[in-house]
Amino acid sequence: MSQIEWTDRTWNPMVGCTRLTAGCVHCYAAPMTHRFNHDHYVGLTHINEVGRVDWTGQINTAPPHIFNAPLKRKKPTVWFVNSMSDMFHEGANDCDIVRAFEIMNQCPHHTFQVLTKRPSRMALKSRQLGLSWSPNIWAGTSIEEDKFASPRVRELLKVPAALRFVSLEPLLSALPSLDVSKVDWVIAGGESGREKTVRAVDPEWVRDLLKRCRFVGTPFFFKQWGAYGEDGERRSKKKNGHLLDGDEIFEMPADAYDRLTAYGRTPDPRWTRIPSRALLRPADRLEASAMPYIAQGQATDSDDEYVLSLMRGDRETYENPQRRKKLVSEPDRTRWETEAQWKHFLDISL
């Protein structure tokens, strides 16, 4: 079983990655892969110029007994795909991607959560390789800062998946640009880790996301506070827990519930089933299909330097959220509520 609350198990048909943005600084997968330095994990990591474990950029294919694991498991399961990699990494082999999708298509009793920081490549490869996004395959993208919200969701909407979701972990800023009405599920969580430069999540960012999700009916899943608790105190991830204002918010799309129950399995009792809703879905898909392909998500030199400075613990670059909180302004919050109310009114009128 996985320790990730929003899934059952992890499946890694490929391993290896590259740090792309500031959200990757404290990646759990790199040091874990470094410890696993055997078999298909060889050559994936190295010690970088600042003395930290880092990725080499190499992507390896898992051996058959791992690659074909979902085919052998008969119990309906929710799988997080590539927790130790990114299926749409630039170094991923097209044949591996196609084979992984063939396996997922052959397992309608399972649910597969495909999460990437490269949604533009996800959309591109879906077209180039003719990938079949059967209803049991969900498409998701990670968003850690507001500058990535609009472009990554825009690219995600080009993916012909039945369910699209966003993972806001680690949540490093408020996300005023994220339109939660355009996705089917929102996951949020704070950053964890033992490093001194681990960044805290501000409770107001989480409350604002929850309020907006509740307004439009998008399921919201708050995974964890991470290294800093709701009160701003640093503790272990386990002690800080995941309660928001005393509530456990583990909302799941109805699709996951219905698929599991249809195949005779009881879902995790902590999950709350949220009925599916299609808010402006046809219009969104029509608009997305007309958008040109944008090569978004590539790391720039400035991004690389920022990531390295964080790994060094450079306090001149590192903004401690305990000292400088970037809260959502009241005018922004009022504007969002007004726009959402008008959209809801127009939907009812039409």
TrEMBL record:
Pfam families according to UniProt: DUF5131
Superkingdom as given in the UniProt entry: Bacteria
Matching InterPro entries: DUF5131
Protein name: DUF5131 family protein
Organism: Parapontixanthobacter aurantiacus
